[in-house]
Each structure stands twice: as structure tokens, then as C-alpha cells.
Amino acid sequence: MTTAPFSTSDRGSRRNAATLITGAGGEVGHGLIAALHAAGRRDLVGIDIRELDRPQRERCRETFVGDVCDTTLIERLQSMFEITEIHQLAAILSTRAEFTPEAAHDVNVGGTINLLRLAADQARSHGDLVKFLFPSSIAVHGFADTETKYAAGAVTEDEHTRPITMYGCNKLYCENLGRYYAHHYRQLARDRLDHTLDFRCLRFPGLISAETVPSGGTSDYGPEMIHAAAEGKPYVCFVRPDTRIPFMTMPEAIDALLKLAAAEADQLTRCVYNVRSFSASAQEIAELVREHFPGAKITFEPDPQRQQMVDSWPADVDDTAARNDWGWLPKHHLRSAFEDYLVPSIKARYA
Ligand code: AKB
What we know:
alpha/beta, binds 2-amino-3-ketobutyric acid, Rossmann fold, 7-stranded parallel β-sheet, 14 strands
């Protein structure tokens, strides 16, 4: 745990200004902290259950090794910082959550409520809105069978939201919690605040990073396949070749978070936005991997349970609302994601 001396912020209080990032050591956390630091932000406070690596620690004003379910830690943050922005990235992803669903609920929902409460308490104490960025997921959608899935095509934010995973249930509930805290929190209390937080949410598809390898997700077959080939290792894909879901690269995901965070509130017609760069089948990804890594040994051995989870997710999502409200535009399609980002970056990583 690193600490810094108290300083008097420009509000005359004895608390440091802070942008709080939970799950700071995760895939999105790595990219987000690097991007915010590169953009000149020097108020970053990172939290993770494991100590952050040195480059991450050096990009943060302070870091804490701790659990978002730990209310003592949350109270310490309340006493130490004037928080104006929170990125609640801490989560147990869909595969890992199906082994310990109650623990996933504790982290994904209990942790998020703790941070929403912190944001509301901060708004009360320093008098400003707290901007709250929350990553949701395509896992909030649920299809009973692949025929319905493929007939639906690219779904909007409000279609087919009947998740079959604990992770998807958690994310869908937290989307509604964020809307509640932002607009209806303590609505009968005489001392309620009219505005506590500015809740903004992205529903991420499968994310593919060249810098990090995912763990605990069910869309991980995409990145796992590429990283295995780059390391010269065989890969056994746990879904069928025809399995199709939307994906985006990690840099695009980080850019989308920053763009949504920077949007003027009056641009936004909703709290929750779909984003995606391309829809791809496992076979299409495998073909591009073999094209760029000719020796790649990729086989398919579907795991029926994980297959059912991915089959319940949409083949694609409609990102029109994000394009119209705050100018989201994907940078890549499938082929350019490989040629312009994944292959050169991953080859450099494993060189
Ligand atoms: C997962 O696979 O659980 C996540 C997701 C699709 O949100 N990557």
C-alpha cells in the first residue's frame, strides 16, 4: 500500500483530489491507467486485490491492495480523497463466476454498491457530481437457442436482456443500480440530494488485447487463440468454429471509455451504451491466426457448458446510440485489428 501526505485541495479541504480506478491490475485497468496518465492525469488512485506492477504504481498518485467488498477500505477512501470520478472495473468474469456464483455476486454487485454509495457520500461531502464509469457486458443478453440468436442479428441495448449467467445477471442489475443511484437515490429522504452521480455505462463485447491475456472469461477463446499461436503453443478452442459474438480491441475499448467519460452530459440520451468493432466467428479468428502464424496448431473441442453460455450471447450488437450521442466509431474491422494492432504488437511482446 502506498500513501501520500495529506494536502489541502483547492476546495480548502484536507483531502487529495482523486480519480478512483478499481480492478486497476486487470486488463482494462492496465490500459485505462496508462491512457489517463498519458493524457496528463495525475490524480489516479488504483485499487486491486493484488499489488499493481511497478509501471502501474508509478502512474498512480496512490495505490491500495484491497477488496471493493471491504467497507473499511471504502471508508478510508472517503476520509482520504475528494473523488470526482470512479471507474469500477473490479469484477469476477463469466466463467470463473459459474464456479463461485455467490462470491461473484459479492464482488460484482456488493463491490459496485459499495462504490456507488461512496460516490453518493462524496457528492454529499464535496458538493459536486461524481462521474461513475461502469463496464457492463454483452453477457446481459440471453438467447434460449442459436436459431433465435442469429435471427435477432445486432441487438439494441433494450432487446433480449434475460441473462443465463451470474455475471450477466450481476451486470444487468448493476446497470439498473447505477441508474437508481444517479436519479432516484433515497428518493423519500428529506435530506436526499437531487443529483449524486453521473452514471455512464458501456456494454463491452469480447475484448482482445495484445498486451495482456484474459482470465476467467468465456469470450477468452479469441485472445487466447492469438497469444497461444504467438508463443508457438497449440490451442484447443472450447467453442464450435461457427460460434459468433461481437469483439473489439482493448485500445478501442479504452478509447470508448475515455470518450464516454469526456462527453457532455446533455449529449447523452441514456446511461447504458453498446459498443463493438466487429462480429467474428471462432473459425474466422482461427483463419486469420493461421494466416499470420502459419505454424499455429488450433483445434476445436467444444465444452458444452461454456458453449451454451456463449451461444446465449448475441451474434452482434447495435451501437447506433453510442455513435449518435457521443461519436463512438470503431477503429478496426476484424482484418485490420489483426494487421494494424494485434499481430505487430503481439509479435513484439513475444519477440
Ligand atoms: C467474459 O467473457 O466474461 C467477458 C465478457 C464477455 O464480458 N469478457
